[in-house]
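in:
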């Protein structure tokens, strides 16, 4: 029964992340990519469900967003990059140290920014990969800010999701 509950939570958070990301999608012609709000869903899933939930929500939503938005060349990279981003962030979010949440945000962001710089360089050119760094930094800063506000709100309403962390 617990596995079924986790699968439903992962599916719901993936669907929510994909829908929110597709509602607010900003193309970046210089890198043949785009900026979305997917970090909010990935980091929220990592916070609520831990590393495994964060990995699967990141991987599935990253791939589906690329598929539905018309960027199929990015699917494999997004599955790997966003999956690792959510898994690593979730690992640190589960730990009870003083700065673990900040380390989770920072490490997840670094994986995403560096991963997409290399992927852009591989698919297009290295100058395009370097150009992608700024947009991905902005996307992560915005995602971290919104996720922090969301986590604060969830703590106030005391939802039963992952009671250990909230």
């Amino acid at each position: 029964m617990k596995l079924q509950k986790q699968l439903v939570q992962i599916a719901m958070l993936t669907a929510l992340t994909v829908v929110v990301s597709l509602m607010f999608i900003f193309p970046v012609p210089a890198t043949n990519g785009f900026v979305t709000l997917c970090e909010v869903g990935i980091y929220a899933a990592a916070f609520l469900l831990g590393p495994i939930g964060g990995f699967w929500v990141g991987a599935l939503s990253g791939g589906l967003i690329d598929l539905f938005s018309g960027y199929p060349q990015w699917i494999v990279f997004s599955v790997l990059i966003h999956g690792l981003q959510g898994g690593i962030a979730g690992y640190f979010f589960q730990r009870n140290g003083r700065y673990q949440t900040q380390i989770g945000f920072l490490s997840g962001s670094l994986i995403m920014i560096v991963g997409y710089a290399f992927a852009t360089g591989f698919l297009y050119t290295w100058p395009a990969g370097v150009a992608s760094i700024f947009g991905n930094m902005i996307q992560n800063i915005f995602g971290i800010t919104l996720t922090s506000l969301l986590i604060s709100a969830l703590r106030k309403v005391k939802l039963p999701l992952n009671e250990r962390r909230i």
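note: Helices lie at 2-23, 38-69, 75-94, 100-123, 126-157.
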